[in-house]
Design brief:
heterotrimer, A alpha/beta, B alpha/beta, C alpha+beta, A: alpha/beta, Rossmann fold, nine-stranded mixed sheet, 29% helix, C: Uridine Diphospho-n-acetylenolpyruvylglucosamine Reductase, domain 2, Uridine Diphospho-n-acetylenolpyruvylglucosamine Reductase, domain 3, Alpha-Beta Plaits, 4 domains, eight-stranded antiparallel sheet, five-stranded antiparallel sheet, 19 strands, ETF_a/b_N (chain A), electron transfer activity (chain A), ETF_beta_N (chain A)
């Protein structure tokens, strides 16, 4: 089974602090990591490979430094890393990104499955996975939480939707975007790291895959960011402190009255 | 032909139109008024009667394209996408709005790619730019820490998914009876792709849809163990709400993933959000800070959750919540 | 020991010295100052009054008054201690340094910083991070503890293998003596043998010899790169044997080497729902290396990892970014929490033995565990032989019985440590919690000298009385 996993390098926002006064993010010391939601796709890919054999190619579009993300995926157990890089990709929105990745994937040869994270934690659009499937015209299965069966030419999956889980059947090749429930990502091992460090990455430019200039980067992107603002999230709430029986009773009464004021009870 | 008019993508399930469809009409009405253009709802489903579709008219749509087909009974992205693309090519809307639901967020990118259209995800504000008449789409990014306003100057249609519950649903206005037009769309059978098949549905009875809930009672690491969610269950039950959780609680398997609220889970905008034993990591706030009212209960007075709370109790939740439950019981709240 | 109560008259005098808002008598507020991180029902005690002075001069006046009136004074930092050091066992005055929380100077030419005692330890690091510096006195409670308490307890933590404990970074102290004099000890001098090194005597004196009002601390270049290795071993012996090997054969001093026994790792992983293959492991090491060059740090990590595999480690996991590092450290950090879910009553210990003695110590702990039928997970800082053997009460044992069991089991635990050349406490201190074991377990000559030092500093025994030992 040949699997392709597109991933994204994102800023690690776990320890980000906000500057209270300016409402901006304190960026110093923020490192770049593999999009946490992509790890579930990577883990699923590795588990499938372990079960059915095959090869996993992970691909990313980004600056040369994004190779760190590819190497982390290789350390976990992917076989090959493809870096799509060049200044002509700068300013790509989800349309232009999907286009470039889809075209690159076509060049990579035959595949059975494309696995993607549900979305990236920075842009939070969730549009590139569906976008790639749309370009490649292969079945798109989003929000996948479980693979029930997989055969040579088809698979059955569960899709997490608002009301429950849909069971869908689709032919291969197909593209899946997966949610957290699908796997527990493994930690890279020393042996994995060593292998990843030595691995030769495939580096592709726009020219290598004969992309249309007009569809690349900012030029190919329909959307434009026109304004960035910093919302102030702080609300001036009232606080009560519980330290003894008396203050406990007061707080609980106030809780009830508050719900009444808000017409909840 | 010039692109004009606003479309909203209505959603239906089991022969019933979903509430988010009416929220989109609230958005659409405001924008169409500004542009002085027609507001159209697209309803792809099966067994939806014209009377049912009339409700979209009563709530503000001028026109409804209704397509009923067994292939459209459930959301299959390729089928929906193909029909929608044919409609777009034929009628050329300037703006298409869909809900940022599991179907909207799959359908819209699929369509936008093929139309080379601009698409903005999960918008919380929409407006029209004065001179250009372009759609201004504002959405939270980087975990809700910034708001980005995005537009599509050159490409049409302009597409956006809109965060569910970020606005009130449009109300029924009976004076609109007979003022709209319902068009039964005659689709081409070849539009149905047939590759993906929905073969079953598993409805987890206990899994409430936290995104639809008016009231969410959420717990975090401070709950200490799975069994302690009983406390929140009781409170949620009394308030007619549902329970949610922070990533840490989900990671510890105290509650299942559909309950996760935050950057790597769901975004909720309920009327009331109660956070118990949740410190308020930036990723969690991203998923709930647009709630109308927020109440926080936490041991640590420095916890970030208090910064976004309208009302906070600093103290031991294991003392406080049982007292609250008891008081509500006395008050006859369920 | 007979102390006088804090009367209305004394309260008036305190108000005169400190102002009304710095003299707290509201019972609800006093409660906060009646305990630290030790179990409140076992060690807690209410003060009669809490004062929050803002200068050494005020403290000096208070100490003179306390000597005159024979009122005990207990100095207090953030209250994150684990031995009862800041608890006013005899009531009287709790002197909280919370309002003395200024960074007085950052001296970039000498790479030193002058701090008031109420500065939160880690906030220092926030302040100097951009200049590429850091303060290495780094206990596990770094996010909450005050620098004053950190020094008074001579705290250790997870980075001590490479950086040592807090005392190593203390260059100078200003203290108020128990009798109320203000004195400067040490200073910005790297070398100083002018008489006894009294500042190092104050370090780790648990607030019994003086009240720290100012500290000059040494800063180090901030390591920018860090790699963690989580290594699974089949048994404790092979894990512990790695510790000296890393330094001798590897030629590397890691930042820290944390150890977790089978019981600890199992409970923590279950609690966190962590899917690492921990079931196979008899012991786990968490090894951290840091430095300034990516390549160097990666190479060091690789060298250590290779040595571990060579010595039969089951698996070596590598965490070189914040996400994965947080994941591996979560396993270590959540052990106590995981056991609290099982039983909220624990006795968190910090015995210390020569590193090589750890494998010998473990069967002894197993023996104690079996004998008293309690779980004793063992984890901590293997790299410096400092282990958090933690006695966990069975949920169905009643409290009175537990206290008895705890005392007996602790006694045996300490004895086991001593027998192997170890001692009672590596980083938490004696305080009131371990005092009862000092008499039998510590050399009487040494204990006698300690008492004489105490008496010469504090003739009326009013500063934090009852801590470490009782003066008869």
């Amino acid at each position: 089974m040949n699997i392709i996993i597109p991933i994204k390098q994102v800023p690690e926002t776990g320890n980000v602090k906000m500057d209270e006064e300016t409402g901006t993010m304190v960026r110093s010391g923020v490192e770049s990591i593999v999009n946490p939601l992509d790890l579930y796709a990577i883990e699923l890919g590795i588990e499938l490979k372990e079960k059915y054999g095959g090869r996993i190619t992970t691909i990313t579009m980004g600056p040369p430094s994004a190779q760190k993300a590819l190497r982390e995926a290789l350390a976990m157990g992917c076989d090959e890393g493809v870096l799509l890089s060049g200044k002509e990709f700068a300013g790509s929105d989800t349309w232009a990104t999907s286009y470039a990745l889809a075209e690159a994937i076509k060049k990579l040869g035959k595949y059975d499955l494309i696995l993607a994270g549900e979305r990236a934690t920075d842009g939070d659009t969730g549009q590139v996975g569906p976008g790639i499937a749309s370009f490649l015209d292969i079945p798109l299965l989003t929000y996948i939480s479980k693979i029930n069966h997989i055969k040579e030419d088809s698979l059955t999956v569960e899709r997490l939707v608002e009301e429950g889980y849909e069971v869908l059947k689709a032919p291969l090749p197909a593209l899946l975007t997966v949610v957290k429930e699908i796997s527990f990502p493994r930690l890279p091992t020393l042996r994995g790291k060593q292998k990843a460090k030595k691995a030769e990455l495939i580096k592709l430019s726009a020219e290598d895959i004969e992309l249309e200039q007009g569809k690349l980067g900012l030029q190919g992107s329909p959307t434009r960011v026109v304004k960035i603002s910093h919302p102030r999230v702080t609300r001036n709430g009232e606080y009560l402190k519980v330290i003894d029986e008396d203050s406990l009773q007061k707080a609980v009464m106030r809780f009830k009255d508050f719900l009444k004021e808000k017409e909840i009870i | 032909m010039k692109y004009k008019g606003i479309w909203t993508i209505a959603e239906a399930e089991d022969g019933r139109i979903k509430e988010v469809s009416y929220e989109l009409l609230t958005r659409g009405k405001r924008l169409s008024k500004k542009l002085g253009c027609e507001l159209t709802s697209i309803l792809l489903s099966n067994n939806i009667s014209e009377e049912q579709a009339e409700e979209l008219i009563l709530r503000g749509a001028d026109k409804v394209y209704l397509a009923n087909a067994p292939e459209l009974e459930h959301f299959i992205v390729e089928n929906y996408s193909n029909v929608l693309i044919e409609l777009i090519k034929k009628y050329k809307p300037a703006i298409i709005l869909s809900a940022a639901t599991t179907s909207g967020r799959a359908l819209m990118p699929h369509v936008a790619i093929r139309m080379h259209a601009g698409l903005t995800a999960d918008c919380t504000e929409l407006d029209i730019e004065e001179d250009s008449n372009d759609l201004l789409q504002t959405r939270p990014a980087i975990g809700g820490n910034i708001l980005a306003t995005i537009k599509t100057p050159e490409h049409r249609p302009q597409m956006a998914t809109v965060r569910p519950r970020s606005t009130r649903p449009a109300q029924v206005d009976y004076s609109r009876q007979g003022k709209g037009e319902i068009i039964n769309y005659q689709y081409n059978q070849q539009l149905f792709d047939g590759r993906v098949e929905r073969i079953a549905f598993r409805n987890d009875a206990e899994e409430d849809n936290i995104q639809d809930a008016e009231i969410v009672v959420a717990g975090g690491k401070g709950l200490k163990k799975k069994e302690n969610f009983d406390l929140l269950n009781e409170l949620a039950g009394r308030l007619n709400g549902v329970i949610g959780a922070s990533r840490e609680a989900i990671d510890r398997d105290w509650l299942s993933y559909p309950h996760q609220i935050g950057l790597s889970g769901k975004t909720v905008t309920p009327k009331l959000y109660i956070a118990a034993g949740i410190s308020g990591a930036i990723q969690h706030l991203a998923g709930m800070k647009t709630a109308e009212t927020i109440i926080a209960i936490n041991q640590d007075p420095e916890a970030a959750i208090f910064k976004v709370a309208d009302f906070g109790i600093v103290g031991d939740l294991f003392e406080i919540i049982p007292e609250i439950n008891e008081l509500l019981e006395k008050e006859g709240v369920k | 020991m007979k102390y006088n109560p804090v009367t209305g008259k004394i309260l008036d005098q305190l108000i005169e010295i400190l102002g009304e808002k710095n003299v707290l008598t509201d019972p609800a507020k006093l409660e906060t100052y009646s305990h630290d991180e030790t179990p409140i029902e076992q060690y807690g005690h209410l003060p009669e009054v809490v004062i929050t002075p803002s200068s050494a001069e005020e403290i000096s006046t208070v100490m003179k008054l306390a000597n005159l009136e024979l009122i005990p004074v207990t100095p207090r930092g953030a209250g994150s201690g684990l031995s009862g050091g800041a608890i006013p066992e005899y009531g009287g005055i709790v002197l909280s340094v919370e309002k003395m929380n200024q960074v007085l100077e950052v001296d970039y030419n000498n790479l030193m910083m002058t701090l008031e005692p109420g500065v939160v330890t880690n906030s220092v690091n926030e302040e100097i991070k951009e200049k590429g510096l850091f303060f290495a006195g780094y206990p596990m409670s770094v996010e909450s503890c005050y620098i004053g308490g950190n020094i008074a307890e001579n705290a250790g933590g997870g980075k001590a293998v490479k950086y040592g404990v807090t005392g190593r970074y203390i260059m100078g102290l200003e203290i108020v003596t128990p009798t109320g004099e203000i004195v400067q000890l040490g200073g910005k001098r790297v070398k100083d043998v002018t008489g006894y090194d009294l500042k190092q005597l104050i370090v780790g004196s648990e607030g019994t010899l003086g009240i720290i009002t100012k500290a000059i601390v040494k800063l180090l270049p901030l390591p920018t790169e860090k790699v963690d290795l989580l290594v699974l071993f089949k048994d404790i012996k092979s894990a512990i044997e790695m510790v000296p090997t890393i330094m001798t054969r590897g030629g590397i001093i890691p930042t820290g080497i944390e150890f977790m026994d089978k019981l600890s790792i199992k409970k923590s992983c279950e609690y966190l729902n962590e899917h690492l293959p921990y079931q196979e492991a008899g012991a786990v090491l968490l090894i951290e290396v840091d430095g300034h060059k990516v390549q160097e740090v990666e190479d060091d990590a690789e060298t250590i990892g290779e040595l571990c595999l060579e010595k039969g480690a089951i698996e070596v996991y590598v965490a070189d970014n914040r996400t994965t590092q947080e994941r591996v450290w979560n396993v270590r950090r959540n052990i106590a929490e995981a056991f609290k879910v099982f039983s909220p009553h624990q006795s968190l210990e910090d015995i210390v033995v020569p590193i090589a003695a750890i494998p010998e110590l473990m069967p002894e702990i197993t023996c104690i565990s079996k004998k008293y039928n309690i779980q004793i997970p063992c984890y901590g800082h293997a790299g410096d032989g400092n282990l958090h053997a933690t006695l966990v009460k069975n949920p169905d044992t009643d409290m009175q019985e537990w206290y008895q069991t705890e005392e007996k089991a602790l006694y045996e635990l300490y004895q086991a440590a001593l027998k192997l050349g170890g001692t009672l406490s590596g980083e938490h201190g004696i305080g009131s919690k371990r005092r009862k074991f000092m008499k039998e377990l510590i050399d009487p000559v040494e204990l006698g000298l300690m008492k004489k030092i105490k008496k010469s500093f504090d003739p009326n025994n009013i500063l934090n009385p009852g801590k470490i030992f009782k003066l008869e």
